[in-house]
Amino acid sequence: MDMNFVAEKGLVLLGCGKMGSAMLQGWLSDGLPPASVWVIDPHPSDWLRGTGVQINADLPTAPGIVLIAVKPQMMGDALPAIAAMGGGDTLFVSVAAGTPIAAFEAAFGADSPIIRAMPNTPAAVGRGITAIVGNANAGAGQMDLAEALLRAVGQVVRLENEDQMDAVTGVSGSGPAYVFHMIECLARAGEAQGLPAAMAMQLAQATVAGAGALAEAADETPAQLRVNVTSPNGTTQAGLEVLMDAQSGLPPLMEKTVAAAADRSRELRNDG
Ligand SMILES: NC(=O)C1=CN([C@@H]2O[C@H](COP(=O)(O)OP(=O)(O)OC[C@H]3O[C@@H](n4cnc5c(N)ncnc54)[C@H](OP(=O)(O)O)[C@@H]3O)[C@@H](O)[C@H]2O)C=CC1
Ligand SMILES: O=C(O)[C@@H]1CCC=N1
To answer: Which keywords label this protein (predicted)?
Structure first.
């Protein structure tokens, strides 16, 4: 099975907000024909209307894939529209934070192939990363199909068990927001040191994007890349002594940040 299968059998996207549109944008750029896509969303955006996909139209009875991208709290209202597609070969993929596979088995039947996924918004530019885990009925072919679909918008990792999804959500699902906030903070700190706002933002954005690209491309670890920037008794060392402080620096703050997000993911299990 591959992406041609999705183009032939059709993809239904339930919920096309920030995450659904980020992925759809990536798939359409990757060549998925708009005619193969059906979107269900109460308030379609102008961008969505311009893509040529079918919006709130009659749905195929047995699409290749149904991608569920509504908020966990909306699940109860949203799933009935697609419940009849369960029990056959249609593969259900949910990107919802928190909502467990068991909730989808209850909605579509335990004999349906169901995959839970946690992507992130850099999928819009083909630079996402998604973790996936399937139920007992998601066979190797279906896991490969989901991986092929998600690989079109970035990297894919497979989890050993569903419990790991809360930690993944805290690290990479929510992670882009932490990095965007770091850009905001770095730019603001540059302004505080006397730089014009636009220039401070350009410096901060390019620094984070460039450091990320180097971290991915280089053979060295991020720790070594950090050392490479740090001249003994130089400017970076002075900055890192603040940032890396074990009590007040980034290490304890990041640990608390990821723990709070993962805890919220665990809480969301009961919000469907
Ligand atoms: N944003 C992110 O970075 C990530 C999000 N996720 C997950 O993706 C899912 C969507 O999140 P996100 O895109 O941020 O949220 P959004 O609110 O942006 O998107 C959800 C979309 O679903 C629509 N919707 C609401 N009710 C229904 C319904 N009954 N049927 C069909 N569509 C409906 C909403 O419309 P309206 O706004 O008009 O109500 C909205 O367009 C969540 O479960 C989230 O946990 C996962 C990884 C990352
Ligand atoms: O904030 C959220 O709940 C979703 C899940 C991961 C990113 N956004």
So the answer is: Amino-acid biosynthesis, Cytoplasm, NADP, Oxidoreductase, Proline biosynthesis
